[in-house]
Structures are given as C-alpha cells and as structure tokens.
Amino acid sequence: MLIDEVEITIKAGHGGPGMSSFGGHGPDGGNGGKGGDVYISVTSDLRALNQFSAEKNISAENGKAGGKNRADGKNGRDTELELPLGSVLADKASREEIELTDLQTKILICKGGLGGKGNWEFKSGKKRSPTYAQPGLTGENKKFNIVLKYLADFGLIGLPNAGKSSLLNQLTNARAEVGAYPFTTLEANLGVLEGKIIADIPGLIAGASAGKGLGIKFLKHIEKVKLLLHCIAADSENIENDYHTINKELASFSPDLASKPQAILLTKTDLLNPEQTASQKKLLEQFNHPIHEVSIYMPESIKLLKKYILEREF
Ligand SMILES: Nc1nc2c(ncn2[C@@H]2O[C@H](COP(=O)(O)OP(=O)(O)OP(=O)(O)O)[C@@H](O)[C@H]2O)c(=O)[nH]1
Ligand SMILES: [Mg+2]
C-alpha cells in the first residue's frame, strides 16, 4: 500500500551535559557535545512515506557528556530523513508549510541542542559555584503532517488489463504488479522517468464515475497531469468503444480531466501482425490524438515512447 499521508514527530538531539570535575589545578570538566541535527532530503522513491508505517518518531543522537580533564563530549550524529518528491509538510504548531518540489533540496528541519559548558569554563566566574556545569539544551522538536501531493506529469489511463502497469515498469523505476486479469492494480503506482513523474491508476470501466470498479477515486492522482497516456490494447475487438468508454468516464468525473491532451498508446502490438495493427490504428485516427504503437516485447517501441515523453515541453 502506498502511504500518502502521515503524521510524524521529529526530534533533534539533546546537547550533552557539561562535566563537573576537579583535577590537580581545580575545575577541569569539559563541554558536552552538540545534539545531532535532523535534515530532510528528497527522493524520487514515491513510496518513501512507507518508512513511517511503524515508526513515526524520528530523532537524532544526543550529544555526549563532557569528560574530565577538559575533554569535550562528542557531537550527536545527524539524521537525514528522505521524503518523496511532492511531499508537503505542515508544521502542526506554526502551521508553516514546506513543499518538496526539487530533488536537490536539503533542509535543516530540527536543530540539535547546544552542549552544556563544563565547570572548567566557569573557572574564573565569581557568581557560580566551582562545581557548576551546564546541562545542555534540548534539541528542536516538531510535529508534522506530511501529505504526498501527486505531481505526476503524465497519467496512464485505460481499461483494466490494457497494459498500463507493464508500461509504467518499462518506462520507469517502478515495480508495479502486473497480472493477466483485470483489476490487478488496486492502488496508484508512480514512477519517475528522468525526473518526470508518471502515474498508473487502476483500470476504469463503464460506470466508474458512478462508483463501479475501482478506478474513479484514483482519478484525483492524475488531476494535475499535463498529458494523459491513454492505453488501448491492440487486440481489442471493439477499439473505438474502448476509447469512448474511458473518455465518457473521464468526462463524468471531471470535464477538466477529459479536456486534457491525450496521446493514445496502442499497446500489445506484438499480438497482431503489421496489417492488423495498421487497421486498428486507422480506427483510432478519427480521434485526432497522436498514436504510438507499443509492446513491452519490442524494446525499440519503448525507446521511442520514452523519447516522446521526455521531449514534451509544457
Ligand atoms: N503480449 C503482450 N502482453 C502484454 C503487454 N503488456 C502487458 N501485457 C500483459 O497484459 C496483462 C495486463 O497487464 P497489466 O500491465 O497488468 O495491465 P493493467 O492495464 O495495468 O491492468 P489493471 O491494473 O488490471 O487495470 C498482463 O498479463 C501483461 O503481461 C504487451 O506489450 N504484449
Ligand atoms: Mg495495472
């Protein structure tokens, strides 16, 4: 299951306490180390929120205590938290929002506490007792609600079994489940092709917008896409019907979605001979969309499709 919303607590490390000790020449307690910081970085692995399925408390290491003989305690180790591209973090207290839209981003989200000074540092102080050492400061502690917004640039749509997930796997690093039966995909899958995000959603059927099948609630995942990749199986018995079924459902769900640019992917062309493929393609030409013949068993067709996707300028 793809986790797309989660609440977590992030806690930076506590500063280590300063030492209170005395050597041959009086106070010699060293300083505590600084608490570790927590950083956020961005990953193209859109399943990264699944790391919080069990543990929702993230922390960095505390600073170590100062030692005798003016020895400084070690700083706590920093923690780096990887969140998926498209995450929006809302700070529960300040209501500040951070949107992760760039893979290069690295943010210091919670700062570790400073280490306490050891009693050596207060040697010449008049107000303090010579045994005084600071305890170290607490690290920052914040609660966030994280929502994964769908930033997909491309959306694979089509009837169940049209080959959408198979294509996603060929085009991107995704490992979506593929099955020789309808409704294999139960959740939206996302993959990244050189920084462009492609979404694969469960197949739509006639009546989907009225709640039939699974697909409709996943359409929100592709509401922001710039191009719909409409998958139609080449071996379909009524290919025009397939086209209309999907577009009718899109239009009932959202006219906005239905009016988005589409490219037709005529899938599974390995199942037909070139003449059959050509006549199926001809039936789709009336819809005035670019048509790409693809087969996961024809690497050249996948290469051409990748090129087409990567060259899209929006
Ligand atoms: N011959 C052939 N079979 C394909 C091709 N692409 C996909 N298939 C097969 O078609 C079946 C359905 O593929 P999926 O990728 O699961 O289809 P889907 O559109 O994601 O299906 P749902 O998730 O159920 O909507 C599987 O048995 C695939 O192996 C292709 O290019 N050629
Ligand atoms: Mg699928």
Automatic annotation (TrEMBL):
Domain of life, source organism: Bacteria
Domain Obg: 1-151
Record-level Gene Ontology MF annotations: GTP binding; GTPase activity; magnesium ion binding
Keyword Cytoplasm among record annotations: yes
Gly residues bias (residue ranges): 13-36
A Pfam family per the record: MMR_HSR1
Any one GO biological process: ribosome biogenesis
Residue numbers spanned by region Disordered: 12-36, 59-79
Keywords: Cytoplasm, GTP-binding, Hydrolase, Magnesium, Nucleotide-binding
Domain OBG-type G: 152-314
Stretches with biased composition (Basic and acidic residues): 69-79
Family: Belongs to the TRAFAC class OBG-HflX-like GTPase superfamily. OBG GTPase family.
NCBIfam families assigned: Obg_CgtA, PRK12299.1
Name of this protein: GTPase obg
